[in-house]
Amino acid sequence: MNKYLKIAIVVVSCMAIGYLSGTVTRESITTWYPTLVKPSFNPPNWIFAPVWSLLYIMMGISAGLIWSRIDFEREIVKKALIFFTIQLGLNALWSYLFFGLHNTLLALIEIGLLWLMIYETYCHFKKIDKLSGLLLLPYLAWVSFASILNASIWWLNR
Predict the structure, then answer these.
(1) Which long-range contacts (C-beta less than 8 Å, at least 24 apart) are formed by 96-99?
(2) How far apart are CA 82 and CA 96, in angstroms?
């Protein structure tokens, strides 16, 4: 399988995870989420879909580039992709905890674990392919912001 097909497969997979996470989010965005007290720096709701779409595309390109190196560095690549898969699962789980279960504290705890897994993925990716690591930095930054937002929402609504 060539590099571009691998990238396409991972991008589509990331977008599918994002879409499925969005199905959990949709109803709560119009019912539960508006009832929460939010900090002054809370972005408008419309910003989340384009930001996440761009991040999922960048994540997919990043992981696809890593996957394309499997013939040269099999064990290192496999380990890096395991971390990628774990963080992607945690990414989806956060939406369920926050928007599905309306549990802001459990989501806050989980987003801390998610941040650590993204950082670990970044560390592994940058050793294999510098561009792949760089492509994860906006995701890490956004989840850092989301962590602060999650913490603030929890604090203001406890």
Answers:
(1) 96/21, 96/24, 98/150, 99/24, 99/25, 99/28, 99/29, 99/32, 99/33
(2) 21
pLDDT of 72 over the 90 cut: no
User: How much is the average pLDDT of 101-117?
Assistant: 98
- Between the alpha carbon of residue 53 and those of residues 18, 38, 47, 124, the distances in Å are 8, 23, 10, 23
pLDDT the model gives residue 110: 98
The candidate with the shortest Cα–Cα distance to 84, out of 99, 71, 96, 69, is 69
Please check whether residue 92 is in contact with residue 21, taking contact to mean a CB–CB distance below 8 angstroms: yes
Distance CA 50, CA 140 (A): 16
Average pLDDT over residues 115-127: 98
Tokens of 69: 């190196």
Q: How many beta carbons lie within 10 A of that of residue 71, not counting itself? A: 7
Calculate the dihedral angle through the C-alpha atoms of 50, 131, 121, 148, rounding to the nearest 10 degrees: -40
- Closest CA relative to residue 106, chosen from 118, 95, 116, 98: 98
pLDDT at 73 exceeding the cut of 90: no
At 41, is the pLDDT very low, low, confident or very high (cuts 50, 70, 90)?
Answer: very high
